[in-house]
Design goal:
The chain is α+β, with helices and mostly antiparallel strands. It has one domain: Gcn5-related N-acetyltransferase (GNAT) (Aminopeptidase), CATH 3.40.630.30. Helices cover about 25% and strands about 25% of the residues. The chain is built from four helices and seven strands, in the order βαβββαβαββα. The chain has a four-stranded antiparallel sheet with strand order 1-2-3-4, sandwiched between helices. A three-stranded antiparallel sheet has the order 5-7-6. β6 and β7 form a beta hairpin. The termini are far apart.
Length: about 170
């Protein structure tokens, strides 16, 4: 498996991955982009960053983040300086460590780009996914009366960055 930087050429794949992430209960969510289109629409604006997992020359997973404005927030919006993460792996490739590798790589990338934290939204009753993100250092920060939970991971400086600041 190789993880490469994503670009505009990957928008269709990112949109497909959104269906896997957002419609996790359904087998066939349909073709419409739905309410999650905000996570890829107009891709390439400042702050947009994607990583694509590739196996045997085919994309099999993606992790990406983008910044949102307060007047047009994402589901896991925290503030205008904290990018919101999205992640999905093709169903046939799950439980092989791809998600772990992607979230680690994306957190490293965000840290290297100077972001202090990443946020995300996950459905409260998707217990396995909440546990996955908690394992990767995300903590629940907002649990309103709805179905979603906003989680946040503070991106502490790497050991190399800490040594450089001494």
């Amino acid at each position: 498996m190789v993880i490469r930087r994503g670009g505009r050429q990957d928008v269709r794949f990112l949109r497909d991955m959104l269906h896997h992430a957002y419609y996790w209960r359904e087998r066939d969510p349909g073709e419409e982009p739905g309410p999650v289109a905000r996570y890829v629409k107009g891709w390439g604006r400042p702050g947009d960053t994607a990583l694509i997992a590739v196996e045997d020359a085919f994309p099999v997973g993606a992790a990406w983040y983008r910044l949102f404005r307060r007047d047009q927030p994402g589901y896991g919006f925290v503030d205008e300086e904290t990018p919101e993460l999205a992640l999905a792996v093709v169903p046939s490739r799950r439980r092989r460590g791809l998600g772990d590798a992607l979230v680690r790589a994306l957190c490293d990338r965000a840290r290297s780009e100077g972001y202090a934290a990443l946020s995300l939204s996950v459905e409260r009753d998707n217990v396995a996914l909440v546990s996955f993100y908690e394992k990767h250092g995300f903590e629940r920060v907002v649990e309103d009366g709805g179905d979603g939970v906003t989680m946040l991971r503070v991106l502490h400086p790497s050991a190399d960055e800490q040594r450089a600041n001494i």
